Give the backbone structure.
Amino acid sequence: MGRYERQVKRQRVDGGIESKTEKECGELNNAIVQTDTTMKDIDEMRKKIEQFNASGITNLCSGHCLIKVGTPEWFNSDAKVSFYTGLPGIDILHATFTHVVPVTMSKKAALTPFQEFSLTLMRLRLNLTLKDLQYRFAISSSTVSALFLKWIDILFIRLKPLIRWPERQMLWETTPVCFRHHFSTKVAVIIDCFEVFINKPVNLQARAATWSNYKHHNTIKFLIGIAPQGVISFISQAWGGRATDKYITENCGILSKLQPGDIILADRGFDVNESAALFCGEVKIPPFTRGKKQLSMIEVETTRKIASVRVHVERVIGNLKNKYTFLQGPLPLDYLIVKDSDQTTIDKVAVVASALTNICNSIIPFE
């Protein structure tokens, strides 16, 4: 059989298979499908689906409005309030807002006054970035920055009175037992300094003034004073990290608050007895060990007594910086510039954070 005959035979076979397949497909297409569903039923089903989708979207939108970030309804538990604001509970959050909110607020604002207040506390508490708050509150970064600065000014003015030097009679009557046992009731304040990281300044003089040999970083430094009860009674303005503890103590104004007979407890770096004596006060610090092989028994006992109570100021500082992590830095340099007053933004932030910490329970037990 030749090649031509084989091709013709193959075409005949293929043609037969193709014809058979077309025939079967035609029979399937001509088959009648029986169903009880009519076009009227399909239209009703379509309407029900549309109604269900519409109601579902409405419910989702209404639910979203109820749980919008920063609203009173959003803070639905004391644990949530504590995590996002640092305050103990819902009642104290609302009481604080009622105390600080201005009488008149702008009506044309993207957020309610309570949301603006919440935004500020959340930034102080969690050190959230402007971009993070932009997405949380659905506003621009510039608006977040403007609201934060505005509310820091408001909180600074309204909460600053919460940081005050206690009256001597009240101080004596409420001094905890641990202080009475070692120093009678004459301890007026325990002082220490803490540092906050900042971004590296471009200006070389500013960079040198803020360099901390202790932290090996550019920092600013605050002097903080607490009463024996654990309440923050003094917070200084920010100083460059290069400034010594002694220099800050002598120039921040805390010594002028002393009354005759008052005792200051401090660490060895606060050797300001001569300056405190000008105000008839006394500074108790642990004895120096330089040039000595060992301390005497009296010096060891004195060191132990001071250390046993001075540790409370370190606990308060740790509580302050852990509660409001904005003070852990690094801070933008814009917050270190004096703009419309003698206070920088970070000075106001330190006062606000200290005042909010005073609203919370003390870490020092009375007994």
Summary: The longest strand covers residues 187-197.
